[in-house]
Write a structure and sequence with these properties.
CATH class: Mainly Beta
Helix content: 25-40%
Distance between the termini: 57 Å
Structural class: alpha+beta
Number of domains: 1
Radius of gyration: 20 Å
Length: about 110
């Protein structure tokens, strides 16, 4: 009897963990836009292409942003993902993450097709 109860409890615990993981991912959304910087926002101020301007502004402390239409969303990400954003500066990307107001906590980024 004890063995059966143990198996049932393990099954229930596993189901709860899977459910919790699914609930955490439920807040993730997909966004498509251009990687820019918070200092310039939707209009670049430097007399340089968007990628060069973004890289320059980020080296001076600006955050990356995702520009969608006429709005810029601040991108918060791990160092690894920030590196990917740097490689994608000025380019159209698809970002997966959780939006809170005008900030997106980035889980993944890839080039848009």
């Amino acid at each position: 009897m004890r063995t059966r109860n143990t198996h049932v409890m393990i099954w229930i615990a596993t189901a709860l963990l899977v459910g919790a993981a699914s609930a955490l991912r439920a807040n993730e959304m997909t966004f498509t836009g251009i990687v820019g910087d918070a200092m310039c926002g939707v209009k670049h101020k430097m007399n340089a292409p968007g990628d060069a301007c973004t890289k320059e502004c980020v080296t001076h402390g600006s955050d990356y942003v995702l520009i969608m239409d006429d709005k810029a969303y601040t991108l918060k990400a791990s160092k690894k993902i920030q590196g990917e954003l740097g490689k994608s500066a000025g380019q159209k990307v698809v970002v997966t993450g959780e939006q809170k107001g005008t900030t997106i906590q980035v889980a993944a980024v890839k080039a848009a097709m």
